[in-house]
Amino acid sequence: MEEIKIEVPVEPPKELETLFLPIPKDYVEDTYRKDDFLILVGPQHPGSGHMRLIVRVKGDIIQEVIPDPGYVHRSMEKLAENRLYIQNIPLVERPAIMDSANFNLGYVRAIESAMDIEVPERAKFLRTILAELCRIGTHLYDAAILAVFIGHTTGFMYPFGIRELICEALARMTGARFTSSFIIPGGVRRDVEEKTLRWVYDATFAIEKRLKSFERIFIKNPTTIARLRDVGVLSKEEAIRFGVVGPFLRASGVEYDTRIVEPYEAYEEVTWDIVTADEGDGYARFLVRVNEVSQSLGIIRQCITSMPEGRYVSEQICDDVKGNFFDKFGNLVLPAGEYTTLTEAARGTLLFTIVSDGESNVPYRVRIVTPGWLYLRGFMESLKGERLADLQAIYGSFGYFPPEADR
Amino acid sequence: MKVEKISRSPIAELKRHVDVIQEAFKQALIPDRVTVEYPRERRIYPDNLRGFIVLDRSKCISCFRCAQICPANAIQMSLYDNFYPGVDYTKCIFCHFCVDSCPTGALASSNLHDMAFRSLEEMKVKATQMTRLPTIVREDKQSVEYFVTKKDWKLQRKKELEDISVLRIIPRIKPRRAFCEEPESCLGCRQCMEVCPHDAIVMERCEITLGGEVIGKGCILKVTEKCVGCGLCVRQCPMQILALKEVE
Amino acid sequence: MIDEILATLMNVFRSNSMQIPLIQPIVDYLMQIPLINILVALILWRPFFAVVIMPGLAVLLLYLLYIVWFERKLTARIQWRVGPLEVARPIRGAIQALADGLRYFFQEAIVHRDAHRPYFVQLPILAFIPILLPIAFIPAGNAVGIKTPYAIQLIVAFLALIPITIIAIGWASNNRFAFVGSVREALMYVAYEIPFIIAVISMIYLYGSGDPYVAVEKQSLVPGAILNPIAFLVFLITMLMATSRLPFEIPEADQEIAFGPFVEYSGMLFGLVMVLAYEKLYIMTLLFVILFLGGWNGFYFEPLGDLNAPLCLFIKTVVVISIIAIVRSMYARYRIDQTLRYSFSWLIAFSMVALGIGVVLGWIL
After folding, report:
1. Where do runs of H (alpha helix) occur along A120-270?
2. What gap in Å lies between CA A389 and CA C250, rounded to an integer?
3. What are the counts of helices (DSSP H) followed by strands (DSSP E) for chain B?
């Protein structure tokens, strides 16, 4: 069909200049001259989260998306410089509250590598269980947000219902539904009873049972497949080039998982598979996470059945945390140097770097690189060439969580 | 492990449609309800779930450990006959670092998890109000517990109500007292004396000897029987010559 | 003079009155009171009864109160929740819709600066005209507003007017999302209207007439749904599209375009535009029941007399809508291009097959 050109003089809207958009000066005029259209999605849009997306569309097709993140920036790194090492634990959990154990684990492992603390086996297994429970919780949370983004309200309620079991398991083990600050340098804060572990073991089966309902009504729903398949495709090369991490990288066919590459805690002692997919589209990204949930349930069961007896906190620290917490952790001073750990958080690779000057009891610098920040570029690239209605579907398929990316 | 491929054939599509419709009608007929009608029903949470913090004044030794470890800076010590902690619930994040730090078990968690205050002022709970559980309005008629088997997850509703009580765990720490490890390094700055809430540290005049020969007069610090082992002086000492030691 | 007019009116009303033996003693008693009797006679006058009482306006309001509550309750049941409960707890929150309506009524209706004020305010009210016009032609046994052998065609024609008001609402709102919503509504309109009309025509061929009485009479043994199941299916799907229910909730997609054409409405005006789709659903389901489920064929109780047919039609309609309400909790939203593709390929093909079946069966019967 031949394109008909109609010369209609269009004035670029003036109010865009006052919005402090992160775009070049003549971008708006250029867009309007080329017959494109700028749509600002967010930060008060029902389908944008706490960020603004500057979408340049030609008709219904997205040409380019420029993200404007930072609406929930809380300066975690600067705050961490003014607190005791132990007081930073509740702080570093906050970027992604559902994923708190993984964030906690990354930070604590950096301290442990600085102080050469050998963590007892039982504590390692307990930490692995916590990390995997949080991973399941995050994946369920993201699935729920994906569901509501494409208009499936039942798909929103079911994961949040199932997540209640995860929260209950975390509550029984740690004493808080999430952000439990349970992992401390040298181990965990309290021993977990055999009875509680049996409960968590049974709960994994109950979760699996409920997930079957969820699978029938949302995961294998024809409308879900229609909305997610073949949209937002990132090929293997693109995914690597744009630095996508975690399940989204694996959905493009790259077998990379920090738990395998640099094993930590008890991941070497349990058997599990890296879940990958070839398509790299929205549905593959969703399915990879769905399959990771069942892998995580498997890891939890193996951890509980092969849970070793012994101490829950390293003898280098203390015998019993209760009552000694301040005396043992209140005045931690790390030897001078830079300590970095890589952790596989639910949404991807998480990097913690602590720089210590060796004298003060607060860190000199804490660097947090969250997975959300790493895959933002890939997310923006995958939107190109899709329809405007797919924006929310791709957003949900990435499970982008602005507080995590903005820190 | 690769994720399974989803078939694109119309028959598979139709089967998935049938699955969805089946599941929806099944749930409509026999729903797997999981919600709790909150004020009328109360969830029974595990014992260790962190709740309102209660203070036992007789056990508190005014050691300031809770106030100093608090990551949210929510604990303020106020002076009565001694210094006692008060928690500001506008700031508290329920990490219970304070409860774990308390060496005598004076701070304890309770199973009161749902707190509502009338004003912001009331949320700053004073030390006098922390010694007992606050009076609450209970609307619950029954309690709900999560019952999990390998088959399914069900909500068990029971008529008997949960008591709201304090769950005090006494740490296995023997009473301690401060003592001076290197009296000869003492500067005599008397910061330990000033910081001691119990007036347990006194300075005594003494003669300074060197090689059996008296070379002058000075002071020496002495920890008296009044010491409760709070360790404030240990943290204050600029020379770090004080330490806590267990006593019989 | 006035007496004569009243007497003439009375005669007109009494000559074509609903005969309900159950309330006959009360009617007889009220008939003795002057002025009240003319009101009672008016209410019982068949055209008036059909349009204003049943299956017309009065039960339409009753249905609206019921369906908003029922839909939320059913969705909650499927989603492991309880749903509205706190308004009138003993009856499980059944007057929730009434409470919401009252709240809308007293809320400020904001008309923003950029809106085309006259159209913005009057269009939600004008939208009722194409909703109410079909009711005049929908018969329920003896109760009928305007009796015509072209009733089904007329209902379809009036239904086709509703999207125009919605598009006009989107235009009057002068909002980017409202504009996108109205364009989507226009595209959807083209997509569902053709298969919908072909499905209706296939049934008209099958019954040999556009007269609801003929259609209902021919279904006395076998309902139309079994005679022409493909037309049944096409009608059902186009009904979901026409009332923008969930797999096709494209014009109003709240996550994408924030309730589409109705984004700027608030207060009572929002209440009016919100129930628009429910009212459209009611009219379409009435037509659906007449065409496929045997209309007012059903029970007959002696004491109800003429009320049997309207009551039966209403109950069937409400049951059908209650079953359709489950779709909301089953599906996600399709994209607009997918919907158009399905509709112009599969739906039109199916409706053509239905037309073939209709022609063949109509020739045999």
Report:
1. 121-149, 153-174, 194-214, 222-228, 236-241, 246-250, 258-261
2. 10
3. 6, 12
> How many CB atoms within 10 Å of residue A195?
8
Taking a contact as any Cβ pair under 8 Å apart, which residues of chain C between 304 and 343 contact chain B?
326, 329-331
Chain-chain contact of B31 with C78 (C-beta, under 8 angstroms): yes
Domain boundaries, chain C: 2-44, 114-364
- Is C329–A45 a contact, with Cβ atoms under 8 angstroms apart? no
Burial annotation A132-168 (CB, 10 A radius, 16+ → b, else e): bbbbbbbbbbbbbbbbbbbbbbbbbbbbbbbbbbbeb
N residues, chain A? 407
Question: Cα dist. A249→A136, A237, A288 in Å?
Answer: 18, 10, 10
- Structure tokens given for C195: 């298969």
- Cα distances from A187 to residues A165, A193, A327, B171, C233, in angstroms, run 24, 15, 16, 18, 62
Please give the model's pTM, rounded to 2 decimal places. Answer: 0.88
pLDDT, tens digit (0-9, with 9 covering 90-100), for B183-242: 777 777 778 888 887 778 877 777 777 777 777 776 677 777 778 878 888 888 888 888
- Comparing B45-137+163-167 with B176-246, is the CATH topology the same? yes
C208 min Cα distance to partner chain A (Å): 38
d(CA A101, CA A92): 10
Report the residue from A86, A176, A323 with minimal CB separation from B94: A176
Q: Is A147 on the interface with C (CB under 8 A)?
A: yes
CATH of B176-246, one of 3.40.710.10, 3.40.640.10, 3.30.70.3270, 3.40.50.261: 3.30.70.3270
Q: Is the ipTM of this complex over 0.85?
A: no
Domain range list for chain B: 45-137+163-167, 176-246
Distance CA A7, CA A9 (A): 6
Peptide bond just before C247 cis, omega within 30 deg? no
CB atoms within 10 A of CB B136: 12
In this structure, what token pair is assigned to residue A235? 């090929």
**CB contact, 8 Å: B79 with chain C?**
no
Residue B27 near chain C (CB below 8 Å): yes
Tokens coding A156: 């929103």
Query: pLDDT tens digit string along C278-322?
Result: 888 888 898 888 888 887 877 777 777 777 788 888 888 889 988
Domain spanning B45-137+163-167, CATH architecture: 2-Layer Sandwich (3.30)
Domain at A76-406, CATH homologous superfamily: Cytochrome-c3 Hydrogenase, chain B (1.10.645.10)
With contact defined as beta carbons under 8 Å apart, do A245 and A374 qualify? yes
| Nearest in space to C72 (alpha carbons), one of C251, C326, C276 | C326
